[in-house]
TrEMBL record:
Record keywords: Carboxypeptidase, Glycoprotein, Hydrolase, Protease, Signal
Any GO CC annotation of this UniProt entry: fungal-type vacuole
Similarity comment: Belongs to the peptidase S10 family.
Keyword Protease: yes
Annotated protein name in UniProt: Alpha/beta-hydrolase
């Protein structure tokens, strides 16, 4: 006759088996999984951020009609309750913000083995709460309808923050200083998003819209693609004699790209600027312009160089490293961070080619986006435009000239203001000019994804900017700017099991609870 212990074990086993059958195979059960209205995420996965007491959330925002934006958020290592809230967007269009997280400004970097991480002492969450958002749909883990322009993307970004700022996890940040930081094609995303947010805020203020205001207080754009015509013209000058580096190509190539710009590229881009891209003929005009200028001016100017970093050589280890893409595709990492909440086998695209192609075909990539930025600059909005001086994709001469030619009250003053050197421990690391709330900076030796090449410089400028300080020289006796200590993290099978599965007692408890309730993701 079976004793009471046997009876208990039988029922315990039955409970566990019933629980396993209950769980939807397409939705991994994670012990720190949290679901709110239109929001599903994992809290404190233990991946990347390893500093004790620093929280993180990663998951999906349901922005309607089976459209989901992936995010990864890290609390400040300093004071999460008062530090600014930063939204980071990579460019592309269609590139994942995981690039920024793992290679530029996030709490960790991925080691060359592609299986482990190391603490980043120059992480921007040393001074801020920072959210990395994959957008538009198709970028990284985000999934949904295909978009073709920044205005459409702004609508979904607004919806995402309506979800976030009414959630238990993020509502506390809605009144924090909000900084939008972006790069490259983010020169389009940033101003367009802020202008859309401002128009929505006005509707809320007037009572025409029910929602939560999303008030962005400042904008940072590094290595931005603001104006194709000025950028290509600047590239010709830059290739002829890059300040600090000298001629990048021989006189024959200079002659070729000069003629291509003057005889073909300039006229095509001007036609694009005059075109109505809501019509297919206008979109075709702009698509032709940007592809022709890229082929006839950019490609010969770059030659065999890395357009992201003109100082790179074939013997260099690639910067930024792509090891993070290997790491984030590991099944145990995806399970731990909640990337599998929508699908057991999510796809991760570092940069989505389809999105990039459709934005180009829509005509948007050939257009200038200076009018969207000029309105903000003219209003006294706090703005930092900065670029690496070893970047050929968005050369800094073109960046500076774009800001000078942009229609705003400070353009002539910026043109007449000499750049002032900034130093760290006595070494010149950047040069800058300030016109009221507008700052322009050139960072020496940095490539297209600026913080990846000069992390200490980038973090220093970032910290000064979000603290509403004018850029200035500093003396520091420590490596990195954070006293926080943390361990590296390794994606092992034991970690995955620990992160995914609660203890047996919790399983039994959840089973009994599940008999009276069901759940559906988002």
């Amino acid at each position: 006759m079976a004793g009471p212990n046997t009876f208990f074990l039988v029922h315990l086993l039955s409970a566990i088996l019933a629980f396993i059958q209950f769980v939807d195979s397409s939705t991994p059960w994670i012990s720190n999984y949290i679901e709110e209205t239109n929001l599903a995420y994992v809290k404190d996965s233990g991946i990347c951020e390893t500093v004790d007491g620093v929280g993180q959330y990663s998951g999906y925002i349901n922005v309607g009609d089976k459209n989901y934006l992936w995010f990864w958020f890290f609390e400040s290592r300093n004071d999460a309750s008062t530090d600014p809230f930063v939204l980071w967007l990579n460019g592309g269009p269609g590139c994942s913000s995981m690039i920024g997280l793992f290679t530029e400004s996030g709490p960790c970097t991925v080691n060359s083995d592609g299986k482990s991480t190391a603490l980043n002492p120059y992480s921007w969450n040393n001074y801020s709460n920072i959210l990395y958002l994959d957008q538009p749909f198709g970028a990284g883990f985000s999934t949904g309808i295909t978009l073709t322009n920044s205005s459409a993307a702004a609508i979904y970004a607004w919806t995402a923050f309506q979800v976030l700022f009414t959630s238990d996890a993020f509502a506390k940040y809605k009144n924090h200083q909000f900084v939008l930081a972006t790069e490259s094609y983010g020169a389009r995303f940033g101003p367009v998003f802020i202008n859309h947010f401002n128009s929505q805020n006005e509707l809320i203020e007037s009572g025409e819209l029910d929602g939560v205001k999303v008030i962005v207080s400042s904008l940072m754009i590094n290595d931005g693609k603001h104006d194709p015509l000025i950028n290509f013209q600047g590239l010709v000058t830059f290739a002829q004699d890059a300040p600090g580096y000298g001629p990048l190509v021989n006189s024959s190539v200079i002659s070729t790209i000069t003629k291509a710009f003057e005889n073909t590229c300039r006229g095509l881009l001007q036609d694009c600027y005059d075109a109505d891209i809501s019509k297919s003929s206008g979109a075709d005009t702009c698509n032709t312009a940007i592809t022709t200028c890229t082929d006839d001016v950019m490609s010969p100017a770059v030659g065999d160089r890395d357009p992201d970093y003109l100082l790179a050589s074939s013997s260099d280890n690639k910067v930024p490293t792509t090891s993070y893409a290997t790491y984030i595709r590991l099944s145990e990492v995806q399970d731990a961070i909640g990337a599998t909440l929508l699908s057991s086998k999510p796809t991760f695209d570092q940069c989505d080619d389809t999105t990039h192609a459709l934005f180009s075909q829509s005509g948007e990539t050939g257009k200038t986006f200076l009018p969207e930025l000029s309105g903000l600059a003219d209003s006294g909005f706090r703005i930092l435009i900065w670029g690496g001086d070893a970047d050929m994709k968005a050369n800094w001469l073109g960046l500076h000239q774009s800001m000078v030619q942009m229609s705003w009250y400070g353009n002539q003053t910026l043109n007449d203001t000499a750049l002032t050197n900034m130093s760290i421990n006595g070494d010149d690391v950047a040069a800058f000019a300030v016109v009221d709330n507008f700052t322009f900076a050139r960072v020496y030796g940095a490539g297209h994804t600026l913080p990846a090449y000069k992390p200490q410089v980038a973090q220093t400028i970032f910290q000064q900017f979000i603290s509403n300080e004018t850029i200035h020289s500093v003396e520091t006796s420590v490596t990195g700017s954070s006293s926080a200590a943390g361990a590296s993290s390794t994606a092992s099978s034991s970690d995955a099991v620990r992160l995914q599965h609660p203890g047996i007692c919790a399983l039994v408890l959840i089973y009994f609870i599940s008999r009276y309730s069901t759940r559906k993701l988002l």
